Amino acid sequence: MATMESLIGLINKIQRACTVLGDHGGEGLSLWEALPSVAVVGGQSSGKSSVLESVVGRDFLPRGSGIVTRRPLVLQLHKTESGGEYAEFLHAPKKRFTDFAAVRKEIADETDRITGKTKQISNIPIHLSIYSPHVVNLTLIDLPGLTKVAVEGQQDSIVEDIENMVRSYVEKPNCIILAISPANQDIATSDAIKLAREVDPTGERTFGVLTKLDLMDKGTNAADVLEGRAYRLQHPWVGIVNRSQADINKNVDMIVARRKEREYFETSPDYGHLASKMGSEFLAKLLSKHLELVIRQRIPSIIALINKTIDELNAELDRIGRPIAADGGAQLYMILELCRAFDRIFKEHLDGGRPGGDRIYGVFDNQLPAALKKLPFDRHLSLKNVQKVVTEADGYQPHLIAPEQGYRRLIDGSISYFKGPAEASVDAVHFVLKELVRKSIAETEELKRFPTLQNDIATAANEALERFREESRKTVIRLVEMESSYLTVDFFRKLHTEPEKKPEKNANPSGPNNDRFNDNYLRRIGSNVKAYISMVCDTLKNTIPKAVVYCQVREAKRSLLSNFYAQVGRREKERLSAMLDEDPQLMERRTQIAKRLELYKSARDEIDAVAWK
Fold it and tell me: Can you give the three-state secondary structure of 475-538, one letter per residue?
């Protein structure tokens, strides 16, 4: 089996990597939260900072009266084989501190950077790593001291704010609670024990620490508490003797302070029998041993979480796309594949797999017939206009039998009205196709990471649609003009085989000259022309949609990006790379995912190797 130090050291390493990558919060349980850590909880001036310094063996925390710890301090201790001691902050990763007085100043400065030089608090943690051969591998979280009253300069909500912040850490099932209580106060009033009891009623995660044993009134002791009679916990109570204020003022070395602490317990008549289980050195080893036990128990669940997260990260990488190859051929292939993905979705819109294509049918079934009905044939074929056109067509020589030139002019004028609805149908379908291009680009997941390529495809597709529109416009105008260029003779031959109505009594006899001014005669001409135009309208109502679909919809399905493919194939590698220029935020997101993926895979392999070898 792996040694305790190697397993806990690995967990510390993984926690630090998680912190660097920002993987220490959010929805669900992050790997950082799944790994055990120790939260130091206590009231203000309970001796929390002194306990931490005793465990580390260094004087490095800010001191003062009132609320000193105003931001959580995530302290990771890394045991080294040899060499000197040094510290590193996450917010200053390239700076190594060997002077621990400078560490104290940096903590104070970094606290003020967020909270200002006030007595306010912030839940943004400071991350500090200390490397030393004199520490055990541990992750400790120093939290602001619990308080009962807001002092001058603090918000009224400070009491509740601090408690909520502390709770947010100690409520996590993987958090070990180090409840600090001063021995010279009644344990029943301990803020730390009260909170620990609420979040950990069984006491499985709580370690009790009594500080200031040397400051108790003469004739009193805390043996009942330390022996578990006054308040029982599942884990043993540990007594700590911190440095006195005089020692702090004299800068007494922490190693000397530890020796004095051992001597105090060994020579104490009250605690001599507990000396082997007292002191900061024993506390550090106790916590480290318990951490190892907790880690071993939770390795299966940690591995399960890691595997689940690896699957999720791989899925997200697949969704946003893997890194782009540097090879020009691979880039060309990728561009073509992305275009095909867009083309598939575009065709699905047209063919009914996705909404939108039905709007084209709406143009033919609703818009075109409605436009044809509104054409001004009644005005064009009014008696007055018929007479005017026929008379002008006859010129100086009135027609002899039938006003053929007048018929042709009336028919040509009527047919010309069809050009408007025909072109409007072309434009309406064009705008539907443009909208489907826009929607298809937006719905092509693979394209979302390439804004430049999106613009290139949109430009190429819209240029193609413009060409298709122009060809379609020419075609439908030809259809209309064809109806004018050659009239259906049989239609007019049938008109002469139909019996004419007999003229009413006393009516003037019909004749070429009289017909020019006879309302019935003019009405018949208008009626014949209208019947012919109605036949033409029925024909165009069917042929215009055919032409539009053939020239625009069919071509959009067949060759929307044909010119674009030809252009791309001739482009240099640099231009291909520019087309695959990604959104910087997406590139950053992929980089972060790749780093997290590497972290999780490495963590899984290292935990397996260390835990079970």
Answer: HHHHHHHHHHHCCCHHHHHHHHHCCCCCCCCCCCCCCHHHHCCCHHHHHHHHHHHHHHHHHHHH
- Taking 50 as the threshold, does the pLDDT of residue 568 lie above it? yes
Distances (CA, A) of 575 to 41, 286, 322, 339, 570: 60, 63, 20, 16, 10
In 3D, which of 36, 11, 47 has the Cα closest to residue 179?
A: 47
- Contact criterion met (CB below 8 Å) for 338 and 345: no
Which of helix, strand or coil describes residue 363?
A: helix
Nearest-5° Cα angle at 217, 215 to 218: 110
d(CA 194, CA 192): 5
Spatial contact of 414 and 377, defined as CB atoms under 8 Å apart: yes
Whether residue 355 contacts residue 490, with contact meaning beta carbons closer than 8 Å, is answered with no
Tokens of 90: 């996450």
Q: Is the per-residue pLDDT at 133 higher than 70?
A: yes
Structural domains in the chain? Answer: 4-21+37-319 (3.40.50.300), 328-498+515-582 (1.20.120.1240)
Phi/psi at 138 (nearest 5 deg)?
-155, 155
Q: Give the CB-side neighbour count of residue 581, counting CA atoms within 13 A.
A: 9
Number of CB atoms found within 10 A of residue 280's CB: 26
Q: What pTM did the predictor assign?
A: 0.60
**Burial label, 566 (beta-carbon count in 10 A; 0-12, 13-18, 19+):** exposed
Query: Who contacts 33 (Cβ-Cβ below 8 Å, separation ≥6)?
Result: 24, 25, 172, 174
Confidence of residue 498 (pLDDT cuts 50, 70, 90): low
The answer to whether 282 and 276 have CB atoms below 8 angstroms apart is: yes
Residue 545: closest CA among 343, 353, 371, 354: 371
H/E run at residue 260? helix 254-267
Assign 123 to helix, strand or coil: coil
Beta bridge partner(s), residue 129? 76, 88
Instruction: Decide: 441 and 399 in contact? Cβ < 8 Å.
Output: no
- Residue 45, classified by CB atoms within 10 Å of its CB into exposed (0-12), middle (13-18) or buried (19+), is middle
Cβ neighbors of 318 (< 8 A, separation 6 or more) are none
Residues 87, 128 contacting (CB under 8 angstroms) = yes
Asked whether the beta carbons of 51 and 280 are under 8 A apart, the reply is yes
CA dist 155 and 70 (Å) reads 13
Residue positions counted in the chain? 613
pLDDT digits (tens, 9 = 90+) for 477-488: 999 999 988 888
